[in-house]
Amino acid sequence: MGMGEPLDNIDECLNAIGIMCDQDGIGLGPRRITLSTAGIIPGINALTNLGPSSPNLAISLHAVTDDLRTSIMPVNKAYPLENLKKALLHYCQETGQGIFIEYLLLSGINDSPSHAQALAGYLKGLKVKVNLIFYNPGSGQGFSPSTPKAIIEFRAVLSNSGIFTHARRSKGSSALAACGQLGKACSLVVKYPQG
């Protein structure tokens, strides 16, 4: 996580997983690794082919209509929600694992009870845990964080639908960081000595 989209370089990603799990390498079990993706379906399919040796999978979802998701995540143009769900169902069936769903709450955009109901409907049939992520304002993107009331109501809808939901505490506000946010890191200028 935090190094760009890992499934854009699936060959090296699989190589890294192999090294991390190799007993002559780092020796981690695959369940000690979580790979976070925006939903690159060919990469998800490659992880599915690992079967029970696949690492945990986290999907940055953030919306469950194609129009809304495309507006905040252009990757949805290439990998729309219906196709993504098929890939996720196949992943769960073949690996026996559940999936983490990452959902960044944006005030007035994707945080209403009706959005939560739509999310619950989309996740039906999948074994998932939903991580609700707080938006850190100040990155100049024009978004605002959801109110505490909106977060409570959103989470209640998911919980009442039988979906385990965790509201993550924000730890990246000082760096304007959260899911996909790198406000301060992107604004840093590094000056190298001449010569």
Characterization of the model:
The protein is of the alpha/beta class and about 200 residues long. It is about 35% helix and about 15% strand. The strands form two sheets. It has a five-stranded parallel β-sheet with strand order 1-2-3-4-5, with helices on one face. A two-stranded antiparallel ribbon has the order 6-7. Strand 6 and strand 7 form a beta hairpin. Helix 2 runs parallel beside helix 4 and helix 5 packs parallel to helix 6. It is globular, with a radius of gyration of 18 Å. The C terminus is likely disordered.
Quick structural overview:
By secondary structure, this protein is an alpha/beta fold. 36% of the residues lie in helices and 16% in strands.
Topology:
Layout: H1 10-21, E1 34-37, H2 41-48, E2 56-60, H3 66-72, H4 81-95, E3 99-105, H5 113-123, E4 128-134, H6 148-160, E5 164-167, E6 177-178, E7 181-182, H7 183-187
Parallel strand pairs: 1-2, 2-3, 3-4, 4-5
Antiparallel strand pairs: 6-7
Helix pairs in contact: 2-4, 5-6
List keywords for this structure.
alpha/beta, two-stranded antiparallel sheet, single chain, 7 strands, globular, 7 helices, 195 residues
